[in-house]
Amino acid sequence: MRDMRVGPTGFHDVRETNLGVVLRAVRTLAPCSRAAVAAATGLNKTTVSSLVADLIARSLLRETGESAERRVGRPGVMLALDDRTIAAIGVEVNVDYLSVVAVDLLERDLVTRHIPFDARSAGPDACAHRIVSAVSEVAAAPALRRRSVIGLSVAVPGLVDSPNGVVTRAPNLAWLGTPLRSRIEELMDRAGAAPVPVLVDNDANLGAVAEYRGGHLAHTADLVYITGEVGIGAGVLMNGELMRGSAGFAGEIGHVRMVEDGPECGCGRRGCLEALAGIEAILRAALPDRFPGGALSRADLADLVETAVERAAAEDTVAVEALDTAGAWLGRGAAMLVNLVNPGAVVLGGYFVPLAPWLLPACRAAVRELAFAPGAGGCAVETSELGLTAAARGGAVAMVDAMESGRLPLPAPPKDGGAAAADEGAS
């Protein structure tokens, strides 16, 4: 499937849309009766009964028994999402790792994998091969046995032409004009895998989706997620929807110039926020003895972050001051976003999370100082609880949302009419 946008509306499209409406209503109300779904959606009861029957046949809804509520007439049969039948997979590509997350219809994790991988040295083609092999391994896991995979989402740190699946520019990966989706589809077809829709998007965007759908600040409608990897990007949600901009490239806060003639950034310019407060800049300043020749092996980032945490916890002056300075720069960048879009929360992710005890005080102080609105317009500055899998998880839940919104096809009813296997434990 090349284009996940909704096409012209016909009878079939209206029914598919209404199926998604009912599915979302049950997600919100479950356990609930058909009458409750009709009341919530405005659809008449006959239509709701037909749609529910269709969704049960597709193993997306199930009946859970009769309502205990006392009422005149027959008791209503309660409905819930059938979480045994489908899976959605998200992958995050970063400089030093791949993350893979599979979720069920309730957006609960089925499989979570973190795979050390030097994506920059490997190059885009080898990376596409590794993505496909990682997805194949996850699809074969016991937790996905007999489940139908509805889609695959790939998060990349850089500018992404998402409708066409092309990574326009990813400086930290050294990718330029990479047709990632078509390459993944080609490799999956060559491997004999069942065809599934593939989405490629920016990692910060999908991190923001993950926070909105399942983070500790879930359903904060106006939210900014700032990545804490080698690069710095921002996923911006306004009223629960991603703010993409005219070409889909919104949120590149890491490449806003903060100082003239500052340190060189991976994008080739100088003085960008990423060059001042990205994880490489933090590690060079906090652990100067670890880079006597100036070289940083990105394969060792996780170990170096752990060392920085240990030194800061031991009150090493160099490490603590480096983190305090980086936190202040992050706060300056976040304050720009607070002034522009007035979010309810700014969430720091990635490697910023373990460093947060030393980054956050200066970051919050800078936001309070530089935000124009009193009290920073009510914006909270917090850290993510989703770890290094946020973008992968966001990609997976974005596929579930796309299915419910009619941008992905609903799975067809099973030929045998039976339900899929019962829930298996997450691995």
Automatic annotation (TrEMBL):
<comment type="similarity">
    <text>Belongs to the ROK (NagC/XylR) family.</text>
</comment>
<dbReference type="InterPro" id="IPR036390">
    <property type="entry name" value="WH_DNA-bd_sf"/>
</dbReference>
<feature type="region of interest" description="Disordered">
    <location>
        <begin position="407"/>
        <end position="427"/>
    </location>
</feature>
<dbReference type="InterPro" id="IPR036388">
    <property type="entry name" value="WH-like_DNA-bd_sf"/>
</dbReference>
<protein>
    <submittedName>
        <fullName>ROK family transcriptional regulator</fullName>
    </submittedName>
</protein>
<feature type="compositionally biased region" description="Low complexity">
    <location>
        <begin position="415"/>
        <end position="427"/>
    </location>
</feature>
<dbReference type="InterPro" id="IPR000600">
    <property type="entry name" value="ROK"/>
</dbReference>
<dbReference type="Pfam" id="PF00480">
    <property type="entry name" value="ROK"/>
</dbReference>
<dbReference type="InterPro" id="IPR043129">
    <property type="entry name" value="ATPase_NBD"/>
</dbReference>
